[in-house]
What does this fold into?
Amino acid sequence: MSKSQVKYGAEQIQVLEGLEPVRKRPGMYIGSTDQKGLHHLITEIIDNSVDESLAGHAKSIWVVIKPNNFVLVADDGRGIPVETHKVGRSSLEVVMTMLHAGGKFSDGAYKVSGGLHGVGASVVNALSEKMRVEVRREGKIYVQEYERGNPVSKVQIISKEQSLFTKAPTGTTSYFLPDKEIFGSVQLDSEAIIKSLRERAYLVRGLNFHFVDERDNQEYHFYFEGGIVSLIKHLNQNKIVLNQPIYITKQIEDVGVETAVQYNDSFTENVESFVNVINTIDGGTHVTGFRMALTRAINDYAKKSGVLKNGDLDLTGEDMREGLTGVVYVKYPSNKLQFEGQTKGKLGNAEIQPIVQNVVKEGLDNWFEENPSEAKKVLEKVILAAKARLAAKAAKDAVIRKGALEGMTLPGKLADCQEKDPSVSEIYLVEGDSAGGSAKQGRDRKFQAILPLKGKILNTERARLDKVIAFEEIKDLIIALGAGIGDTLNAEKIRYHRIILMTDADVDGEHIRTLLLTFFFRYMPIFIEKGYLYVAQPPLFKIAFGKESNYAYSEEEKSQIIKRHKTEGKNISIQRYKGLGEMNPEQLWETTMNPQNRILKQVTIEDAAKADEVFNMLMGDEVPPRKRFIQTHAKSATLDV
It folds into this structure.
């Protein structure tokens, strides 16, 4: 049947009722159905409890992961109303089974809240195989149970002995099992949940968070009186700081602004932003206002103090960001908030930008005047960054004049592929000339390019751009990728959409891989964000029996292969690959480069702040934090292949 013959009438128009749209298109409501989306379910329920605290009615929140993968979230707030709603059903049932139903649309119930559309609890219900909600209110305990969003019982009163949670006389308990039909076999990650709770504990002073993972008996408790100043200190815990945290707070009509600023001796920026305890990972108007204020305040102070004379040096926003750690926290009536998307990653309210800008500018101006010695250290840091930026630009311009970064002259050692479409092209960054030679011979020339890297590249954790560009191996890499670097970096010009790190499965190989990952994280993070960076997994063993052979990528896999063939009475020989160069081109192709057989691990950044902390600790100058980390994790360390 042709497209023109396909019937299109009233019967083809679908009306999705109740929570059916959520199950039909879950990504529209929680962003995705992977682990991130799964965690979003828990966050929605937690934020309902946090909203109770922001409204002045809750002091503690409990989160428990059960061995059967049920999640329990409880608070000591007022409890969801249970009386009959005007639609003829219990208010509890309305909140749990209807989209856009809740207390966050009115002006009275929640002035400030993390919820935006009133869909949180009902979406969690729709995407849960089973859910049970208990409300402790007015001396009674009310309960209702659901399956995939549909009530399976009426709201009932139960005794305390029948309750799942008895630690608070009032409040709401949500107990749910994420639906395997939606999330498959994705597992909850306790580390991500712990991070989320810690963030909220920093933002809401006086609120206790209790987390228990009964799967492995982990237990954490968070409570911070210092607010975002404590968060700043946590973010800079492994760095040398230049000033005490600058704390600025002010309420302008219905907008509450809190910021904290501290500089360290690193070359990278780490700014966290929040709106009503929601982590706005993509920033928004509040972050724009913060950056504009910072740039203006430092420029004004530099001119006023006489440091910038004759206009010989212009300080830019880029200079201000070097070594900056900041937190921007805005509280705003929830019924006025405008986010981009249900997952609330970016604030869109235009009116917030000038308010944050004015508050932060005024606060920084006062701090610079009142703290001249620390202000001088910050200014020296920014001026040094400006001079380094100009030096890097000069170095980069020198390279560009030779046509290198524009792709006019590709490195001689690059064995490029025939394919010109980046979406189907890939480049292997291979450790050593020997392995590089095997890879060049074994590859599929149509779509696979090979760039051998000689020795260990520069540790870019503590290097500015001019030094990075001057390092020959890195310069060749930048040229081969074709996207430029620094302020000229353009991901649209990248020549390969799969950049694959292929190093030996030994300590030196792991070190080279870490150096490469550091470079991409610090100078080309957009490639990681777009999902272009991968790590190849070469085999550790070749196991031969008779004329046949198998490859094993781990000790466990080797044991399984040996066990399987020993039962067949065959003689077995085992070869341990110490390096890629020990494999001939055919073996390298078959085990590590053939798309049908190979194993690639995609590099992602789920938590940029945590990644920044780890890279700084492992690759930075400070030895004590690195030593503590190694001593703590040495027994659990494994070679990840």
User: Anything to note?
Assistant: The chain is about 35% helix and 20% strand. The chain has four domains: 20-222, 228-393, 406-538+602-606, 542-576. Residues 372-401 form the longest helix (30 residues).
